[in-house]
Amino acid sequence: MMQEKALRFQLSGKTAMFKKPDVNTYAYFTYNNIHKVALLGLLGAVIGLGGYARQKKQESYPEFYDKLKHLKISIIPDLNKHGIYAKKIQTFNNSVGYASFEEGGNLVVREQWLEDPSWTIYLYDDKSSAFEEVADVLRNQKAVYIPYLGKNDHPACITDVQKVEIKKSKERHIHSLVVGEEVETVTEDFFVTPYYFKEIAPIGMKETYNFYEFAPAILTNNTYIFNEEKQNIYRDGESVVFFY
């Protein structure tokens, strides 16, 4: 039986901002955790793939998403924070471009930023050339472009990069986000304070217009109840993770 593997690394930063597409007139808001499209964009940057600005009219996706969308990922938020990071509204001025049409020639921008976010990231080793290229660049610290957590105000720190052996698991206590699943959970350990986090997050992109595709992202210390046997749950040491 062939041993399955994954690339594991720590991803963190002082701040982050993964902008939600649904905003109001007051401020731009952020998702609580890095989502799959943002993570693939970060990985695309480190291996030198083009982003949204370089997408041509005849291309269905930006280069980073077209080349990396097949990769399976798993995300473990800082479990001490239960998937929810402190957030603050940052206010700054924009006096260029379209801002010149604002009163006084200045646009006041308000953004919600995550503070001190950190995640353990897994990339499933599917033996593809894209996976091998990402693994080589991260392990040898030779990124083509500087990786950011959402935008260039938020430099990303990537540490503790290593390949690990993973084994399929039937366990239902999962440490990572469970994404794309409408599932039930139940509390089994009444001596542990339960927590349950859920948000609707991007899991992919639609062709041409690059609209997000969404699904629930859940983090809990409860036990999951799946309707059928899942093939995307693995164990790495003490951690049980869900790939999507």
Question: Care to describe what's here?
Answer:
This protein is mostly beta strands. It has a single domain (4-242), classed as Alpha-Beta Plaits, CATH 3.30.70.2660. Helices cover 11% and strands 36% of the residues. It has three helices and 14 strands. It has a six-stranded antiparallel sheet with strand order 3-6-1-7-13-14, with helices on one face. It has a three-stranded antiparallel sheet with strand order 2-5-4, with no helix packed on it. Strands 8-11-10 form a three-stranded antiparallel sheet, with no helix packed on it. It is globular and about 55 Å long. The mean pLDDT is 90.
Topology, pairings included?
Blueprint: E1 4-12, E2 15-16, H1 36-46, H2 63-68, E3 73-77, E4 87-94, E5 107-115, E6 118-124, H3 129-139, E7 157-168, E8 178-179, E9 184-186, E10 196-205, E11 212-220, E12 223-225, E13 233-236, E14 239-242
Antiparallel strand pairs: 1-6, 1-7, 2-5, 3-6, 4-5, 7-13, 8-11, 9-12, 10-11, 13-14
